[in-house]
Amino acid sequence: MKFTKSIKPAEVKRDWILIDAKDKTFGRLISEIATILRGKHKPYFTPHVDCGDYVVVINASKVRFSTPKKLGNKYYKHTGYFGNLKEETVAGLIEKNPEKLFKLATRGMLPKTKLGRAMLKKLKVYASEEHPHTAQVKGN
Fold first, then answer.
1. Which domains does the chain have, with CATH numbers?
2. Is 56 within 8 Å of 96 (Cβ atoms)?
3. Which of 34, 56, 107, 127 could form a disulfide with 61 if both were Cys (CB 3.0 to 4.6 A apart)?
C-alpha cells in the first residue's frame, strides 16, 4: 500500500518569486498569486500546512483592468458607528494605494483562518519597480 506524504511545517522549502504586474490582467494575476501563496503549485501541497512561497509584486500601479470592473467594483469597510459605511472604488485604490487593492483581492482567495492570514503576510506589493527584496529574489 502507498500513502500520500503529508509534509511538516519544518520541512517546507520557501522560495521568493518576483512577478511583474505591468500590462497583466488583474484577476488572472491575483489567482496566480493566491495559488503560489497557498503552495498548490508544489508536488507536496498539504492543505493544513503553510507550504507556499513568498511573492514580490512590482509595478502594481500599471496592472490592467477591464473597464467595467475598474469603474464598478467597490470595496466596503464599516467603522462600527452608525452611518459609517465607507466605500472605495477599484479606480481610486489603484491610484492611491495599489498595495491595499492587491492584498484585499488576494485575501478573498485564501482560507479565512489563521493559516490564511499567515499566507497573506508572505505577499509583498510595490507600486513601482524598486523593492527591498533584491537579495532574496533570484533572477533579478
1. 13-63+96-130 (3.90.1180.10)
2. no
3. 127
